[in-house]
Fold each of these.
Amino acid sequence: MRLLLLAPPGAGKGTQGERLAAWSGARHIAAGDLLRAQAQVDDPLGREIAACQARGDLVSDQIVIDVLTPAVVEAAAHGGYILDGFPRTLPQAHAAADLAARLGVTLDAAVYLHAPEAVLTQRLLDRAHQSGRSDDKADVIRHRLQVYAETTGPLVPYYDERGILVAVDADQPPDSVTADIQARLARLAGAPGR
Ligand code: AMP
C-alpha cells in the first residue's frame, strides 16, 4: 500500500501513520522525525534544519526531498509506504509524483485528517508538556498552523482533483479515526477499477 497523510499539526498523523503501517505492512516514513534526526548532526545542514524546525517554518523543498527520497525508494521495494508529513508543498507533491513515476508505482490514497483549529491548538499545547519538542510552544504552534493553512492546504484540492483524496474527521478518539480510515481504504480497494 502507498499512502500519504495530509494533516495540520496536531491532527494525529504520527499516531495514525504508525497504526496504518502496522495494519498494512507498509513502512511509516515520518518527514518530521527524519528531519529531527538529521538536525541532531552538528553540521551546516543539521543546524539549518534545527533552526527551521524551532521557528515552525518549513525546511526547504530540496533538503526535504534529499532526506526523504532514499527512504521512499527503499520502502517502495518493501511493501510500500505511509508518508507522514511529506509532501507539504506543491513542489514537494510534484517531486513525490515524479519519484513514484520513476519507481513505477502509484499512490493509492491521500488521507486528509481534518479537525477544528481550536482542537489542534489544544492538543499541541497538551503535548508540549511531554514532547520536549522545540516547536511545541504557543507562538510557534500558531505559526505552524498558519504555515500549514497557506502552504500545505492547497494540497487538499490538488489530490482531490486527482481523485485520490480520502477526507476523515480527526476530531474523534484515535481508535475511531483509525477505524474510519481503514473502512474508507477498504472501500477504495474494493471499488471497481482500482
Ligand atoms: P512534524 O513532525 O510533521 O510536525 O514536522 C515538524 C517540522 O519539521 C515542521 O514544522 C517543519 O519544520 C519540518 N518538516 C516536516 N516535514 C516537512 C516537509 N515535508 N517540508 C518541510 N518541512 C518539513
Amino acid sequence: MANKGKIIIISAPSGTGKSTIINRIIADTSLDLQFSISATSREPRKGEAHGVNYYFFTEDDFRKAVADGRFVEWEEVYPGRFYGTLRSEIDRITSAGHNVIMDVDVKGGVNIKRIMGADALSVFVQPPSVETLRQRLVARATDTPEQIEQRVAKAEYEMAFAPQFDRTVVNDDLHTAVEDVRKLVKDFISE
Ligand code: ADP
Ligand code: 5GP
C-alpha cells in the first residue's frame, strides 16, 4: 500500500521531454499522482488553459503573490517571465490524499528538494546532447528562434546541476525513459 502525500520533482533543461514523461507517468493511475499546476506570468501557448497547464497571472499579480508569501518557491526562469509553486496547490493535492508530481526548472527543483527533504524525490531528466535538445525545441515549434537559443544556452548551464538531484534519467529513447522514471516513482512512493 503506497504512502500518500509524497512529492515527485521532475526537472530538466527545457525541451528535454519533462512534460511528455510527466503526462505518461500521470496516466498510470496506480501511482496516484496529481500534477502541481504552477503559476506563471508568461502568455499561454496555443492549447494551454488557465488552471490546467498553469495558473496564468499578470506580472503584477505574480509580484503580489510573492509579497503575500503564497509561493513555496518561485524563479524568474527567463528574463521577465516568472514561475512559481503555490503553497495552496501542494496543500490541495496532499490534503486530498494524493501524491504530487511537479515540473519545475532546475534551480527550483534543487530548492524544493531542500525544503521538502525526505518527503520528495528529485529527478533530473537529461537530454542525450545539447544538439538533440535544440532539435526537439525546433520540432516542438512552440518557441521563436530567439527563445530556442535562450533555452539552449541555459541548458548548458543547467546540466551542471544534475549531481544535486536524487536521481538522473537520460531521455534518449522515450519509452525507456518513461519506464525508468515510473520505476523510481513506484519505489519511492512504496517506501
Ligand atoms: P519539456 O517539457 O522538457 O520542455 P517536452 O515534453 O515538451 O519538453 O518535449 C520537447 C519535444 O521533444 C516535444 O515535441 C516532444 O514530443 C519531444 N520529445 C520528448 N521526448 C522525446 C524523445 N525521447 N525522443 C524524441 N523526441 C522527444
Ligand atoms: P515553459 O515556459 O516551457 O512552460 O516552462 C519553462 C520552465 O519553467 C520549465 O523549465 C519549467 O520546468 C519551469 N517551471 C514551471 N513551473 C515552475 C515553477 O513553479 N517553479 C520553477 N522554479 N520553475 C517552473
